[in-house]
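Extended Data, panel c. Modelled sequence:
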Amino acid sequence: MSTTEVSPARPAATSGTGPAPARRPRTFEQANRRLKWAMLSPALLFVGLMIVFPLVYTVNLSLTDAFGAVNAGKGYVGLRNFTDALGDTRRFWPAAQRTLVFTVGAVVLETALGLALAMLMRKPFRGMRWVRTVLIIPLLTTPVAIGILWLLILDPTNGIANHLLAGVGLPRQEFLGSVSQSLPTLMLIDVWQWTPMMTLLLLAGLTTLPEEPEEAARVDGANGWQRFRYVVLPMLGPTLATALVLRAVDALKTFDILYATKGAGGGSDFEVETLNVYAYGLTFDYQEYGLAAAVLVLFTLFIIGVVVLLRRRSGRKTA
């Protein structure tokens, strides 16, 4: 007797495509990202306006013959203010030269002294907290107060500096009262004030360096200078480059201590007149607002050029 095999029934085919899959809900990360930008947008808009508006206004003012009052009637003169500034060999170019000399001299000394102090403070020692506290005192003092303090110390007649020089048999100096000594003296004052900042920045970089490469160099017989020159300094390169750029930009913009010690025009013979002091004098002493704006635009371009140059050089060295 034969048996018949019964195949299992196939499921009936359903007509149509069926219900569409539900849309994937927004993830927490997406919502958080949008909320972040929503919270930041007012601050970003405010900062953007505070940066863009002064720049646009200054560039626009530099193309006019504004004089006497900013709101007074003025006409557009194109690039005449820029050509007048660049053609001024009596005030503009000497001020640009002093700006560069002051910046290079001060930053080089601050970097060298800051690196030396950072290397000395690299290893913990007794009283290290007190030393760090004393180091930051110049940073906590306002530049105007520092200028007045050094005016008293370096006074040619009653200043303590000349009394100390006379005590060791050295001749008295004019310091800030001398046309030739004013700029070097102010450079040294700047070094006194800002070397601690370079020290702290470089010390922070040194504390993050690994100890293994230096230990390996010591085992291989390298002396202290060789370990510093070929091991520590290359590893410290990025931190050193960043500190150098930050300090150079800040030194280029120095104004308050120059004005506090030498007054309007940077002295009777413009001996410490930098581009900042020159632009200030054009604005508030001579009320040549168009020319002053052109000088500030040129000064801004000069600062940008210095930053780009320093970043490129530091990039080559750290590559």
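Confidence is low (pLDDT under 50) at residues 1-7, 12-16. This feature is highlighted in the accompanying rendering.
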